[in-house]
Amino acid sequence: MALMSDTATESEHRNRIWFFPHKFWQATKDMPKEEAADLMAEVESYAAAGDFQALKKYPFVFVGDPYSKKGKNSAA
């Protein structure tokens, strides 16, 4: 039983979603306010749905552990 919860915790940790506000602000600094709000709503909807592949296309979102040596993404 403990093995199952360890696996679930490990899986949850691997799929943790990190949002980097400074990178979002940098990416949206020249966008109209409404467009930036729509982009944030799109990101939030992908996060709520657990669509990790879709989230990986955003430079201000990281799925996994950004501080891990393996599998670095551009957002770290």
Q: How many structural domains can be distinguished in the coordinates?
A: 1
Query: What is the share of helical residues?
Result: 55-70%
| Number of distinct beta strands | 2
Continuous helix count: 4
* Low-confidence sequence ranges: none
Largest sheet: 2 strands, antiparallel
| Strand residue content | 5-15%
The Rg value, from CA coordinates, equals: 15 Å
Order of helices and strands: HEHHHE
Distance between the termini: 34 Å
The rough form would be described as: flat
Structural class, from helix and strand content? mainly alpha
Task: Give the strand line-up of the largest sheet.
Answer: 1-2
Mean pLDDT: 81
Quaternary structure annotation: single chain
Description:
By secondary structure, the protein is mostly helical. It has one domain. Helix content is 55%, strand content 8%. It contains 4 helices and 2 strands, in the order H-E-H-H-H-E. The chain has helices at residues 2-14, 21-28, 33-49, 52-55; strands spanning 17-19, 61-63. Strands 1-2 form a two-stranded antiparallel sheet.
Question: What is the compact description of this entry?
Answer:
The protein is mainly alpha-helical and 76 residues long. The chain has helices spanning 2-14, 21-28, 33-49, 52-55, and strands at 17-19, 61-63. The mean pLDDT is 81.
